[in-house]
Design brief:
Elements (H helix, E strand, L loop, with lengths): L1 H11 L6 H15 L17 H10 L5 H14 L7 H19 L5 H24 L5 E11 L4 E8 L11 E5 L8 E5 L9 E7 L7 H8 L6 E5 L15 E6 L3 H12 L7 E7 L8 H10 L3 E7 L8 E2 L2 H7 L7 E7 H13 L7 E6 L3
Parallel strand pairs: 7-8, 7-11, 8-9, 9-10, 11-12
Antiparallel strand pairs: 1-2, 1-6, 2-5, 3-4, 3-6
Helix pairs in contact: 1-6, 2-5, 4-6, 5-6, 10-11
Length: 373
């Protein structure tokens, strides 16, 4: 197994600096092999179209530790049902992937690499198909937008109700969302900002970054209104509470990274009596702390909860100043806490470094990031 994992990582170094070429070759080959597959993808392939390839590649890199990632792969298979992916499609994708890897790697590719990727992909497909076949839920849920609140030019908080079937999720998880009225076949992940409830209502915090990557977020922020129908796919993610733990809790949120942190706090309200919970909530400017008032309402009702807001660019802010990772460090140590971190990739990276410097055990840290680490 060690040699197998080594071959995968070693061969990946031949192509990782040329992902655009790898992606272009993969999709060109895929649609040549089966033109009908093009209908499963967005009209504009930029960014969104690469999600399946990225998922396959990421999963392949985990095959060296199959036990740890078995549930991840099964969840990935369940999630891919929303794309209407079938067993025969996996075979076609495998052919296209190997062809793209060989072409992109060039003379550095060899038979050992080829066989390692074949075996890895076969193992991935087996687990993903098993996850898809065992799932009794629908591929996605239709959901009606109930409320929509704007917070500045680029942020919105909206609630939706899943229709027809109960949608099971845990606080801290995320789901894929599609707005077929505006951008059909474009899916993007958003954390659920509330704990599970009997009303089947989910809350999302959405910020649009602009550009092609923000098409769906832009529609959800600027165009979506109550009564619109969205599609919501099965929940994923492991940034969930460990109810068996007696450790106090540190939550660090940046921007709309508040969403899963808010959900975790709501779940804690339902059962916590003994664990202190410290929430650090950061943004660049005060107006971006859109959820602060709601958090302060929770603090007034629950003495075990504290909230510390911070701004990094407004020196007149009546609170902590600086990047949220630095603010958290000033309040430490956090060595004996369960830690939850959510926000942009740079913010999460900085906070994880701070927690590592504080010698927080890695198994006590869970995080969710919007972008690649």
């Amino acid at each position: 197994m060690e040699n197998f994992a080594r071959l995968l990582k070693e061969s990946w170094t031949l192509v990782e600096e040329d992902r655009e070429r790898l992606s272009a070759h993969f999709y060109a080959r895929l649609f040549l092999l089966d033109p009908e597959l093009r209908k499963l993808f967005p009209v504009q392939m930029s960014g969104q179209g690469n999600r399946i390839l990225e998922a396959i590649v990421t999963a392949t890199q985990t095959v060296g530790d199959p036990e740890s990632f078995d549930e991840y792969l099964r969840a990935l298979g369940r999630d891919h049902r929303k794309y209407h992916v079938e067993a025969t499609h996996y075979e076609t994708m495998g052919v296209a992937l190997l062809d793209a890897l060989r072409s992109t790697a060039g003379d550095g590719w060899n038979l050992e690499y080829d066989q390692a990727w074949r075996e890895a992909y076969a193992s991935i497909c087996e687990k993903m198909l098993a996850g898809a076949e065992a799932d009794e839920n629908p591929p996605f849920w239709h959901a009606e937008v109930l409320t929509h609140e704007r917070h500045g030019p680029d942020t919105a908080v909206l609630t939706v109700r899943a229709l027809q079937h109960p949608l099971p999720w845990k606080a801290g998880q995320y789901v894929s969302v599609e707005a077929p009225r505006y951008h059909p076949r474009v899916w993007r992940t958003y954390s659920v900002a509330n704990a599970p409830n009997d009303d089947n209502v989910l809350e999302f915090h959405v910020r649009t970054p602009g550009g092609a990557a923000g098409w769906l977020s832009g529609a959800l922020v600027r165009r979506t209104k109550p009564g619109d129908l969205l599609r919501v796919a099965a929940p994923m993610g492991s940034m969930t509470l460990d109810r068996s733990s007696a450790r106090d809790i540190l939550c660090v949120a940046g921007g709309v990274g508040l969403a899963p942190i808010k959900a975790l706090v709501e779940e804690l309200i339902s059962f916590n009596r003994t664990r202190w919970v410290h929430v650090f909530y950061g943004a660049r400017r005060p107006e971006e702390l859109y959820g602060l008032a709601g958090l302060e309402d929770l603090v007034s009702a629950h003495p075990w909860l504290s909230v510390t807001p911070a701004c990094s660019e407004d020196l007149n802010f009546d609170g902590e100043l600086g990047d949220i990772s630095d603010v958290v460090t000033r309040y430490g140590p956090w060595t004996t806490h369960d830690c939850y971190v959510s926000g942009s990739a740079p913010m999460v990276r900085a906070t994880l470094r701070a927690l590592a410097a504080d010698e927080v055990p890695p198994e006590h840290i869970r995080y969710d990031t919007f972008g690649n680490l």
